[in-house]
Amino acid sequence: MSRITVARWILILGIAFVFLYFGIDKFVHPKTWIGWMPDWMDGLLGMKNDLWMQIVAVTEIMIAIALLIPVRILQQVASIAASLHLLAILSQVGWNDIAVRDIGLLFMSMSVWFLV
User: What is the number of domains present in the chain?
Assistant: First the structure.
C-alpha cells in the first residue's frame, strides 16, 4: 500500500470518527447539543429543535459511514456533504474555538474529495 493511500485512509478515518462520535453523542447526550441548535430552526417545517437535532445526528452518522465505504463516488459525495454540513455550522457559531475546529475539519473534508 502506498504512503498516499495510507495517508488518505488516516484522513478519512479521522473525519469519519469525528462525525460518527458527534452523531452518536447527540442521541446519548441530547441536552449537551440542544443549545447549539439555532433558535430559528425551532418550529421550521413544523419540527421542534429536538427532532432537528436527531435529523442532524442521523446525517452525521450517515456521512461517517459513507466515508468509510471504499467506493470513490460514495466517499466524494460524503466529503461534499461533510463540507456543506460544516459550512452550515460555521454560518451559525460565529468566531470561536468551535469555528477554528470546524474550519480545520472543513479543509480536511474538502481534501478527501481530491484524494479519492
Answer: 1
C-alpha cell at 37: 441548535
Burial bucket for residue 45 (CB in 10 Å: 0-12, 13-18, 19+): exposed
For each of the chain's 116 residues, which pLDDT tens digit applies? 899 999 999 999 999 999 999 999 999 999 999 988 888 988 889 889 999 999 999 999 999 999 999 999 999 999 999 999 999 999 999 899 999 999 999 999 999 999 98
Q: What is the radius of gyration, based on Cα positions, of the chain?
A: 15
Give residue 54's domain range: 3-115
pTM for the structure as a whole? 0.93
